[in-house]
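Support request, please re-run this one:
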Amino acid sequence: MIRVAIIEDDTRIREAMVVLLEGSSGIRCVGAYENAEEGLTDIPLKQPDIVLMDINLPGMSGIKCTWLLKEECPLCRLLC
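Re-run finished. Output below.
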């Protein structure tokens, strides 16, 4: 089972991605977050295999969040 987390500020896109992932065989969405700060607090606890990251987020950018998550979750693959 591939565990995926999403950080996306657009609610419609985030929810559509969750539905798409949950409907795919062998994939489980372990978290969906609307900003980098929420993702940074929860993703290290869940240790997903993949994080799908929006680059243009309110507050902290997706680029900065990616750097911080790589320190906390070195085995996670991050796709921006």
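The beta strands are 2-7, 27-33, 50-53, 77-79. The chain has a mean pLDDT of 97.
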